[in-house]
Amino acid sequence: MTLGLGLLAGLIAAFLHAVAYLFSRQYMRQNPAGILLFLGWGHILMGVGSLLYLFFFPGVFALNPAVYGVPLLGTTLNYLVGQIGLLWALKYSESSRIAPLLGLKILFLAAWVVLVQKAKLGPVQWGAVAMAAGAVYILNTAGGRLSAKSWMGLGVAITGYCFSDLNIVNLVQALDGLGPEASTTGVALSYGLSGLLSLPVLLTWRRINREEWRALGGFSVSWLGAMVFLYVCFAAVGVVYGNILQSTRGLMALLLAPLVTGWGWHHLESRMPRAVFWSRMIGALLFLAAVIMYRIGIVR
Q: Which domain range does residue 172 map to?
């Protein structure tokens, strides 16, 4: 895969994630108590698409499940934990505020390296941590402070996503024998398993109206598409630079916010004063710069 393809795939993944956040926010505004229902039905839909993929590209079934089983479980279970946290945060705040703050993964990684791996950060990485802390302050104060419940959801989301990302690397490596299909097969396996784990939601069946189905369908298509492009990006440019590209989702969400309010969808995004918009944009750019600095520190 070429570098250009990896860059394009990473940016498309970031954009589709930002779109998926809007559909998640739409559903949570309509059904504040429906986190598990949304999570279940959304992943059943994605699971159906994933299993169809595996039907047409069944090469993975020739591999020993013991080779990829552990990273598959780690990727999927941690991802689902992260999704619960994200939906909880989106229940209380707009996606244009939550998406940039997912860049807090950099602070989680720094803490993990120092406290668990007993490693030392270099000057560039410490500078990135300080920059990320400044970005948190700006994003938390621009347009009013986030609620404690939003921060709680963000904490769960970031923790789950970080552990899932660590397992994605191992999963793609375990599937390396499939060649170019390794990345997309990894997505299909993870979301097929997510769909199977979500089947108990069928026991709590209730009638889902048209608006809810639109939100569920939009979320499922955009999120699954984002993950396909993200895995392709990881395969082409590596996880280090793939995560840098993924961090542009905060900017994407902010740029989408004025369009959403301009279309009259104020239940998804409240209209931001210009000063608030630019303050949040500065915070999102600081996060992106912090991620780049931190990753440069690792590469060196």
A: 3-299
